[in-house]
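FORM 7B: Structural annotation worksheet

SECTION A. Query
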Amino acid sequence: MEITIDYCRAKESLKRMDVYFAYENRKNQAQVILPEGIEKGSQQHYCYLFLSCLLNYGVKSSVLHENLRAFYEKKPEVFSPEYVVTAYKDHPSDFADLLRTSLHVRYPNESAKRWIALCENLHINYHDNPKEMFYKKNKYEELKKVIRSITGMGQKTGGLLLRMLIDQGMVICSDGIREIPIDRHDIDLCVWLGVVKNITPEEIRKDKKIISKLSAIWVQASEDLAISPSVTDQYLWIIGSQLCTEKQCEDCPVRSMCSEKAVPIFSQAL
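SECTION B. Predicted structure
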């Protein structure tokens, strides 16, 4: 059977999400609670955001950010590119041990490799200041290209970073957000809501073209409903990573459209 993407299902789903989250008065901007001592918009702020997004995989975001804040308060120097390059470039295993014990990341060796590589890039090419990466760049595709050039900044982690930078006014994006990063929760949700049909989540995860089309359909629905794609991304993230994973189907605004919705406990007993 032919794979189909249903724009109308995406638009109707998003309309229901927007009504629900407006009523719930949820915060829609992508943001990270900064440790004390970091001034908003400072070089340290940029470095902290870059490194937090770099590790945003394989661990629950809320746990990661709580651990990161504690890590910064204990060892703020490891958020300095120059310090990391000097102290750990030739000792990655020591840094992996530090990340393992302090952040409890699932893949400490890979995390250490990415952290050190990013710091080396910033130190050598941008005087330790991530903001310099965006000099004379204000189009979405230009900004995305810069971020995707960083080792470890893929479709989801890089997209998350770019959304945070735009939402917080840390970069100028004259043409607005043109993509919504699609992760495994979003893929599951797209299948369950009938936004994409005749393909499994496992197959989608291996198909970059389908992922790109799903991203585009959510952006289109956002624009047609006058909703920022950044806000749509937040809606999808809350539903997929919180309501779906914790089976809080009764609280979900798109429950009636979902093929995977849990059967209420009282119905199971009948």
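SECTION C. Observations
Confidence is low (pLDDT under 50) at residues 263-270. The beta strands are 4-5, 196-197.

SECTION D. Sign-off
Analyst initials: ____
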